[in-house]
Amino acid sequence: MRDPPEPPHRPVRRPHPVLGSHPGAAHHVTIVHTLHYPERPLVQTHIGAITGNDEMVFGSNLVVAVAMYTGFNQEDSVIMNKAAVDRGLFRTFAFRTIHVEEKKKSTSYTEDIRLPPQEIRARSYNYGKLDKEGIVLCGAYVGPNDVIVGKIQTKHIKTGGEQQTDTSVVIRNGEEGYVDRVFISTSPEGYRIVKVKIRSQKIPEIGDKVASRSAQKGTIGMIYNQEDMPFCAQTGLIPDLIINPLCLPSRMTINQIIECVAAKSCAREGRFRYATPFSSHSTGVVDELCASLVENGFTPDGKEVMNNGFTGESFAARIFIGPTFYHRLKHLVSAKIHARNNGSLQALTRQPVEGRSRDGGLRFGEMERDSISGSVSVSLKQGLAVRICSMEGGSWDVLGWDADVRGIVPKRQIGFLDKGEKECVRITCQDGRIFVCTPDHPMLTSDGEWVRAQHLQKGVSRLKCSVAYPVVDIDAEVAECKGWTYETPDGNVRLSTDTPEHFLRSLAFARILGLLVTDGTISKRKQGGYVGHVSVGHLIDVSTFLDDLDLFSLSKEQDFTREDRMYSCYSIPIPYRLLNTIIEIPGILVGKRVEQESTLPDFLIREDCPRPIVREFLAAMFGGDGHTCVLGMHRGKRDILTSLSFSKSRVATRSDSLVLMMREITRMLNKCGIHKMTLQELKETSVSKKKRHENPEAHERCFQSTLHLDISEVIPFHDKIGFRHCSHKTVRLEAAVAYRRLRENVVRQHNWIVQRVDQITRFSEIKKASPTKIVGTKKAIIQAVDELRSMEEIIHPYAIPTTHDITDHLIKGTQFGKFTSKNFPTAEEFLKQIGAYSWFVRETEDETARPVAYGTCRSSPCIPVMELTVLDVRPCGKEVVYDIEVDKINSFLADGVVAHNCMISHGVSRFLAERLFDMSDVFSVPVCCACGCLPHTLEACNMCESGRIKRVRIPYACKLLFQELMAMGINVSLFVDKDEKYLAAKNIGSL
After folding, report:
1. What integer is the mean pLDDT of 805-817?
2. Global confidence as pTM
3. Where among 874, 894, 911 does a domain terminate?
4. Considering its fold, how many domains does the chain have in total?
5. Is the domain of 55 the same as that of 177?
6. What counts of helices (H) and strands (E) characterise the chain?
7. 855 domain-assigned
8. Burial of 167 by CB count in 10 Å (0-12 exposed, 13-18 middle, 19+ buried)?
């Protein structure tokens, strides 16, 4: 090898964005990076000499080790020595030149560079670093919002006046530094030009990029202290840089290895080498380079024995190490990283400003800023509801609006977000229900449009609503159960309430029993064994019951569900093992129940059985043999909404046990907060009468016992118990409760106004002292109504009393609430207004058709909705608000009202999941069933030599993840489940 020729001394344009020497102080470009300590490369080329790169250097000779170390130099990332950085390695100056020029924009606008007067200065800017001419002082440190050049824009008004505006140039975020130089000149037009050169020091940090001349680019993954870096056992040499060995074969950069070997002997000999490729200096040089290493006291392969900097132990393998010429690239993490908490907003949209230099933030759309009050309940698929504030970390099946089927369907909750305190509005609906959310929260209206809450029109907009289930506090009810447990006699099922998961499982078991003892049968097979099934009337009921069964059986039974067209229902079989367990429970009957003693499951009627367990059992029983509200005739009008009831039948010889069982159900209802009810006397069923009339001697009489709930218990039953596994009864109850709630709110407001009028006028006191004295109440009524309206909206004009009502209530003692006036809607009129009339009466011209309709269509995949008019939208102050994300449908029922899913991850997480997993290319890997390692072939495992190898299909994204983990030196072990279909991580983290 020979020394390179002298290069020509002329500036050249370098092809790579690297940091090097500055071509000249007077060369004013926008951004220039200058390396503090540039070095000539030890190994040079003829092209480098011609282009001048060997003289105008732009890099440093680093001691580079090729090894995997702690995992922070995986793939193309590198590890750097902090001591080398402290000594000045790759430190640079960044020079940013800011150009300011006076301009005359038009005949009316001119600009001047000078110190702005105090009265027009911007409050957020700092003018303290300007001289008297309005130009920053040389050597001053300037940061964000510091003015560097004062500038005034003058508007010349035709009347002769002037209007001045401050247009000074300020330092933006990321431009801070020291003022290096200030240049002042004049343009050919006579306007002043000011150039301010700002200097800032850039020290290498994690995230910056470096590259060798072989285009081996890498990102700094970690900067270790010198004592933590590996060192040569003989010489104590510590590398400046550690690269991953996998980067060399993947990039096929063999020339970097040759450069390292050549530079190693150059450093010992104190001279440069010439290594132009495809020349005499690059052919047959391996033997020469190896011999040169031996002459200088190194091993011929360039490898050294090195010790771990953390433990001091020697590495099992020798490490390839030597000098390599590296560049620092201009891609700096300090120029790209950005974060902010609060900052400036756009005046028009109230959104964060855009851009890093303006300290901009993430621009939230209207679908990301809105949320719901924590007190609002979310309806679940299981027939219960939970407060939205308690849904963190859960994955509930919630009910929401599906635009494809135009109804309510269950979907999985996949996200939760606590959004802190926000200003909220209170929405009052037609039935008096109240919904609290942020002003911009989208609500679904009757025309299928999503409208922001603050844009809802009072008395015009109608919101889509559906079922609102009983609200439960899981943690509070777990505490209420006080560790209650129950184990079936055969020991196969053990119920407990110590954790929320076990508690919900116990509730599911109670629901299974409740439906089985009412709308289910258990019979004995002729060939031996038992068979049992339950009947439900809707596809969603099928799904919810199967979900309950899944908690106690290993396989789903949906493939065996059959449609019973004769009885308009679906028949669901009970799994054989679970059925045998249930039969062993005392109180469970097998065979024809009407001819047996009336009993209930023994453990449910005990005093120590917790109220939540009893509630779910009763809700499922009422879902089976309960009777929901019916729209009845009264004086030629459908103006009667009946209350709820429950009935069972037994033959005459078993009627006494039937009465005892109904009394036991009454006691259980009392336990759940239902007190007003009537147990009807035994009455022979119509079927029994018919059969006895046909054959008096052959048929035993059958009697029915009915338990009627008082009409005042309709709302408490809805709020505390409800129906389970019967969508038909649930939606009817929801519509009936809406009407009952309307009436009760009207009565409440009416009585409040009457009492307030009495307080204002002292009506009762005056009339008691002077019965004939006339007391005016008109103004007092108006005042009381205004006071009530200031607190809440008047639900219905019928709530406003007349002067005669004041006298009747306060003097005669009459009670308000008969609702006989034509001004108040009947039950039929109200149901038609909200779109729920067809749930009670089939509207058909066919006189032969059944007049009574079901609340839901048996074959429909969704639950219907009703539409409630918005009466009022008013601010209600700040409240803590939350939001959830619902899979696919992006909506949920909040207090029975259809609300939109507004989480920020609405578009992000689902997109990533679809791209990385759902739409990922199919890839398969061989997995050892014995040790979980990934063998190379399907014949035998490399590690344990086992022949139990299975090929498992995984998303291609997982394959990329496994490659990254292995590049970090992290072992990945996998295992195959019993069905050999699913894959899970078993041991990730062993180095």
Report:
1. 87
2. 0.62
3. 911
4. 6
5. no
6. 20, 50
7. no
8. middle
